[in-house]
Amino acid sequence: MCTTTCARLLGPCLLTLGLLSIFANLLLLFPSWESHYLILRQITEKAMLLPGLWGGGLLVFPAAIQITSIGWGWSCSRSSGNCQKMFLTTVLSALALLGSAACFIMSGVGLAEGPYCLYVAIHNQVKTEQWGYPFREMDNQALDDGRIKNYLYDPTLWKSVCIEPQNIVAWNVYFFSALLIISMVEMVLSVLQIINGFFGCICGFCEKK
Q1: How much is the CA Rg of the chain, to the nearest whole Å?
Q2: Which positions, given as ranges, span the membrane (predicted)?
């Protein structure tokens, strides 16, 4: 097994995914390209927690940089032995795995809960506009056939429930889904590098002596 060849592929891939994760999370903070919702803190809670920034991004970067440096033989990676370098990539990849897993879970919860938006609520048969999570209540309503109602399977609700921000439902669905996909791929690549690092410690690099 050529551990350096594997590292040349995994490192840049993780680095790219980390950048995409940060970008997707930042876009969640600016629905419909508007900034005043962030200033007023009228943003979905899970987006405000920035799982794509610290989980799918910052915790992934150390592993991505170390893996890339080993794969492409950067000078900074030559100061220690092969086993030490591969062990370090294993530890950093485990950290990246934890970060991407946290991003995956929090993005999934954010997607399931739906966006924070202005909607029409009915209290004692009186309609009032308020900010909140309208789809949380909908998810607790059962349909006639016993199934639980879920806004994700009914796109007609995406434009009819939330009044403001504009198109917030589709915005959240797209970018939380992107974070789910990105973090899932990051988890797979992190596991592959953990395995690669294990073999690198035992077998060494496949470099010509």
Answers
A1: 22
A2: 12-33, 53-74, 86-109, 173-206
Give the Cα separation of 79 and 198 in Å (integer).
20
- Can you give the pLDDT of all 209 residues of the chain as single tens digits? 456 777 788 999 999 999 999 999 999 999 999 999 999 999 999 999 999 999 999 999 999 999 888 877 654 444 455 677 778 889 999 999 999 999 999 999 999 999 999 999 888 888 899 999 999 877 555 444 444 568 998 888 898 999 999 999 999 999 999 999 999 999 999 999 998 877 766 665 454 44
Residues 32, 168 contacting (CB under 8 angstroms): yes
- Domain assignment present for 119: no
Structure tokens at 15: 């680095």
| 122 lies in some domain | no
**Max intra-chain CA distance, the chain:** 81
Residues 6+ apart with CB under 8 A from 50: 25
The secondary structure of residue 149, as a DSSP letter, is P
- The phi, psi pair for 208, rounded to 5°, reads -75, 130
Which structural domain range is residue 180 located in?
A: 3-114+166-203
Q: Is the dihedral of CA 34, 38, 41, 47 positive or negative?
A: positive
Strands 162-164 and 126-132: unpaired
Number of domain units in the chain: 1
Name the pTM for this structure. 0.86
Q: Would you say the C-alpha torsion 141, 147, 153, 155 has a positive or negative sign? A: negative
Residue 155: inside a domain: no
